[in-house]
Write a structure and sequence with these properties.
mainly beta, three-stranded antiparallel beta sheet, two-stranded antiparallel sheet, 1 helix, 35% strand
Length: 92
């Protein structure tokens, strides 16, 4: 985890992907918010993918589901991890 995120702020972490896209011949960027899941077991029920902490009790890293991992590896993708004022709760 980034060292500047306090434990109390871990529920507020967000992950967004910005990807280049062509729309009617014009290059545009699209940003997609990815949901935080409770565990890897939920990855199959999140069609676009999502992410989860390696350990919910004391997270040390963010782990991407397979679909999100593939999207992250696409050319031109920018990953943004932030700590907003409030993030949606994890998808049950």
């Amino acid at each position: 985890m980034p060292p500047d995120i306090a434990p109390a702020d871990l529920p507020k972490v967000t992950l967004d992907l910005t990807q280049p896209a062509v729309d009617a011949g014009t290059l545009r960027e699209t940003t997609t918010h990815y949901a935080r899941l409770v565990s890897r077991e939920q990855c199959g029920s999140a069609p676009q993918g999502g992410w989860f902490y390696d350990r919910n009790d004391n997270p040390t890293r963010i782990v991407a589901c397979d679909n999100l991992c593939k999207a992250i590896r696409s050319p031109g993708v920018v990953v943004s991890i932030g700590g907003g004022c409030s993030a949606p709760p994890p998808t049950p």
